Amino acid sequence: MMLLKQLLLLLVVMVIAVTLSASKTDKEPHFTHKHGRLMAQKVTCDKYPRVCTVAGSKGPDCCNKQCVNVSVDRLNCGKCGKKCNFSELCCKGKCVNPSGDEYNCGKCSNRCKKGSSCEYGLCSYA
Predict the structure, then answer these.
(1) Distance CA 74, CA 96 (A)
(2) Of all helices (H) and strands (E), which one includes residue 48?
(3) Which helix (H) or strand (E) holds 38?
(4) pTM of the model
């Protein structure tokens, strides 16, 4: 009986959430009915920049109609369209080679201690 009440409460909360999220505004995309299915308009960040700031977005920046984070995206490192080489990572908007970079050794922001060097992505390997 208790489980049934919890499921009913969950159902009511979901219906309210869907109802509130489906309310239309002039600037937001809306759902249309086409050929018996609900089809969402294609929402791209070039038309709706706020899309990139919502939770779950890949990043706050818009490049080629996609949300990205130019601080860490290897295909848009520092700015849209700037690609890092195969062996490089994008760390804080700069392409770096983690195999030999003492400030990004093996991964971004992994700094080797004073006096040690970065070799093969490890601090003081030898």
Answers:
(1) 10
(2) none
(3) strand 37-40
(4) 0.58
Integer Cα distance of 49 and 52 in angstroms = 6
Element (H, E) at 15: helix 2-21
Phi and psi torsions of 10, nearest 5°: -60, -40
Q: Note the pLDDT tens digit of each residue in 75-121.
A: 999 999 999 999 999 999 999 999 988 899 999 999 988 888 889 88
Residues 6+ apart with CB under 8 A from 88: 74, 95, 96, 97, 98
9: number of Cβ within 10 Å: 10
For 58-82, the DSSP string reads: S-SEEETTEEE-TTT-TTSSSSTT-
Query: Is the Cβ–Cβ distance between 58 and 74 less than 8 Å?
Result: no
Based on DSSP, count helices (H) and strands (E) in the chain, helices before strands: 1, 8
How far, in Å, CA of 48 to CA of 27, rounded? 9
For residues 24 and 30, the answer to whether their CB atoms sit within 8 Å is: yes
